[in-house]
Design brief:
By secondary structure, the chain is an all-alpha fold. Helix content is 79%, strand content 0%. The protein has 14 helices and no strands. α6 runs antiparallel to α8. The longest helix has 31 residues. It is flat.
Amino acid sequence: MALGTLFALAAGLMWGLIFVGPLLLPEYPAALQSVGRYLAFGLIALPLAWFDRAALRELTRADWLVALKLAAIGNLLYYLCVASAIQRAGGPLPTMIIGTLPVTIAVSANLSSAQREARLPWIRLAPALVLIVIGMAFVNNVEIAALRTDAGADLARYAQGAAIAFGAVACWTWYPLRNAAWLREHPGRSPRVWATAQGVATLPLALIGYGLLWAGLRLSGNDFAMPAGPRPWMFIGLMATIGLFASWLGTLCWNEASRRLSTTVAGQLIVFETLAGLTYSFIQRHKIPQVQVVIGIALLIAGVILALRVKPQRPGTP
């Protein structure tokens, strides 16, 4: 439990970087940031795949199809939604909407695994979920109040960002459940090899997406400076950093956590990503969070700790 929690914390700290990228490159299309990040992830995975080539050969066609689905939905589509939401609504609001993942994953895991694995009893899980929801409400209240006092705020654009953020929630509610299911079904497989396999599967998807985006921009008459935009070294460096830490290494740490924790508990620990994203967002803003935000973060942490104290039960256990 302790080691699994540490792996989940490490993954959350690295995944929090994804909420900063769109803020540092606001002039770059969200789609370009998505395919750029995962192009970097795929290229990073290639030399790692060479070292693990024997283990990768053992993966079946069905395994590679799962890796492709995880790459398409949990990687490319998820980050497209995240980047689009942040560019429209800023950092904290989408971060907190995506922060509902501990709730959506816990509920989905309980519903899907009730007859297959140990799960957290609803009556004992409820207080932790309530604390998490209240904590997110505190932070969202601050963002909404700031929005109402900003005369130049584009409410429609903020609403679009919020809606797109819920799309990211849907993607990543599915991803960890399917990823954990594969790991449980293949206990002899290395989490590192599986993380590398997802990187390899992402590469052709990212290349195709990059080519389609480039062609679409040209056909629409958009004069955006492809292939790397007006700040190429900033773009390449940031995509490489996020690709290494938030994609490959973060996925590796999450796979290790998924092997040691129940799906429901692991779902709670995604709150570390939200906390890291909020911290990085406020650092990027050069602002100290307000008291309500600090209270909200404290409630989020309290909810996670409370959830970790709940012991999973086997189906049929009173």
